[in-house]
Specification:
2 copies of one chain form a homodimer. Chain A has 15 helices and 10 strands. Chain A has an 8-stranded mixed sheet with strand order 3-2-1-4-5-8-9-10, with helices on both faces. In chain A, strands 6-7 form a two-stranded antiparallel ribbon. In chain A, helix 8 runs parallel beside helix 11, helix 13 packs across helix 14 and helix 14 packs antiparallel against helix 15. The longest helix of chain A has 24 residues. Chains A and B meet through helix 9 and helix 10 of A and helix 9 and helix 10 of B. Chains A, B: Its EC number is 1.1.1.94. Chains A, B: Keywords: Lipid biosynthesis, Lipid metabolism, NAD, Oxidoreductase, Phospholipid biosynthesis, Phospholipid metabolism. Chains A, B: Belongs to the NAD-dependent glycerol-3-phosphate dehydrogenase family.
Chain lengths: 331, 331
């Protein structure tokens, strides 16, 4: 029997830090693994993450901070993964401890590049975690606003809804409201797809399209997302719930989104490679585009926006030409 | 038999000017009534509207400009009304010419204050225009971007879809795409309701809520809009089409929206009266809130956002308290 008060966060970035902050409102002890020993020591001394979300005050006396992932996995029942999907595999390879009987919540928004799978499916296929022990933490939420304690709504999903409810008790607080869902596939795919649509919004902006077009793009994107997810996992869901539409909007309208910034550079004429070099990082949506495109090849949902972004990022097509064709497929 | 090439625009504001510009791409002669004789003369001489959308170049040789509404109504079959709903009645009172056999398209986003009706219903009830001769021009469209010839998508609605198709031929151009719909009620109510949600977005911003909350608010707003319109006029429609969702987004995310600005002032502590004085105008959404609230009293759709805005604007309730309660009704 899992003890839901034994929660650990895996990851040292902004979103991991935000989740630790949320849990700190409710738990006396939280496990927290991060790769950087330097950051661990800094947090213990200075009560702030030196690299990410530095404005959030942390409480080291409540934190079991460690640079050893096996120490954390050994001692906690509920593991919240919040590292960029591109680094997940590297971290998991360090594991000597077993993940059997652990409950895994993914707060990762993206595709595991090595397997081309969303995180929940990756854990299921490669670590034999049953789906009832896999959950998702999603929602329209910039970590920066959690640091500022601005009201935010998260959705906690698990096919075993009781587990989602249990975790949600420790997540919600004065500034965090939670909703429970049993749609782990829809919530994870939505979180991944929205990054592609944010790239599309960036490309459009870079090409000189305005707010009128942006609103048409987002309105087409949510319909496309609905068709896409329906093919992946058919169930009753309202695509206009905050975890789907809200998440699309908070990213697609954010001028701080790295995916949107990446797209904007492409729209302005940068090559994919030079945009990545300039940003000194790879936007999540870049990988997501390839995976989403490939997954949909079999599913056959009508996805003109994903297809357009794919043609630009991977097909070496001119953004201007691709978007001119795209505008005729939107309405 | 109406001649669809005999089109006139009634109104001298930004949206009227934008529509004239669109029509100018396709028509040799366009009737255009505006109240201000000074503006008429200015446009004839200087090819720009002096007061609104001044950046748009106009072509006086294509325009039958007149300060006499009866001259225009007499000579044109298709009348596009594009004046603020608050002034519609004053203009209609000047009519000595009959509206019989005219086809009326409303490009007005709002409620006629004197009747509490959307424009189409107002013409139907007070001028005995049959619904098949009433249409709506709607869509996510800032007039300013039409002036800049940025790609925009409009929806032309009429229960007699053939008429919508006919008009759309003269509206679409290099930078305007059109879609035809038979949902005159849904498109008009959506255009009216979105102003209320823009006020709500402004209030939230004024109170200090952030982007995370804004996305939740918009995601709840579109679900509320769906419930509301379904009660008013039940038919098959996809609320995520651009004319509904896109229109909500282009307004709700616009920092230039007068409704959002009005809400922002209320959220920051201005009284309704002082906000209006400060803005030197009344935001359309102010009237819309009262009408929408009253119409819904009978219909009984669940509308927590409209109710909240109503309580603040008309019930003298504190915005802070009302929104704290509202946050518990959203998800």
């Amino acid at each position: 029997m899992s003890d839901f008060s034994k929660i650990a966060v895996i990851g040292g970035g902004s979103w991991a830090t935000a989740i630790v902050k949320m849990l700190s409102e409710n738990l006396e002890n939280i496990g927290w693994y991060m790769r950087s020993i330097y950051a661990v020591e800094h947090i213990k001394r200075n009560k702030h993450n030196p690299n990410y979300l530095s404005s959030a005050e942390l409480h080291p006396e409540q934190l079991d901070l460690s640079g050893d992932i096996n120490h954390i996995v050994r001692n906690y029942d509920i593991l919240i993964f919040a590292i960029p999907s591109a680094f997940l595999n590297t971290e998991l390879e360090k594991l000597t401890e077993s993940l059997d009987n652990k409950i895994i919540f993914s707060a990762i928004k993206g595709i595991v590049p090595e397997s081309g799978l969303i995180v929940g499916e990756h854990f299921h296929q490669h670590y034999k975690i049953s789906f009832e022990n896999i959950g998702v933490i999603a929602g329209p939420c910039h970590a920066e606003e959690v640091a500022m304690e601005r009201l935010s709504y998260l959705t906690i999903a698990c096919q075993d809804e009781q587990k989602a409810k249990e975790l949600s008790k420790y997540i919600k607080s004065r500034y965090i409201k939670t909703k429970v869902s049993d749609d782990i596939f829809g919530t994870e795919y939505a979180a991944m797809l929205k990054n592609i649509y944010a790239i599309a919004a960036g490309i459009a902006h870079g090409l000189g399209y305005g707010d009128n077009f942006q609103s048409v793009l987002m309105s087409n994107a949510i319909r496309e997302m609905k068709r896409y997810i329906k093919k992946v996992h058919r169930m009753k869901r309202n695509i206009n719930d905050s975890v789907y539409l809200g998440d699309l909007l908070v990213t697609g309208y954010s001028i701080f989104s790295r995916n949107r910034t990446f797209g904007n550079m492409i729209g302005k004429g940068y090559t994919v490679k030079s945009a990545m070099l300039e940003m000194n990082m790879v936007a999540e949506g870049y990988y997501a585009t390839k995976s989403a495109y490939n997954i949909n090849k079999e599913n056959g949902a009508k996805t003109p926006i994903i297809d357009a972004v794919y043609a630009i990022l991977y097909g070496k097509k001119e953004a201007k030409d691709v978007f001119e064709k795209l505008t005729n497929m939107l309405d």
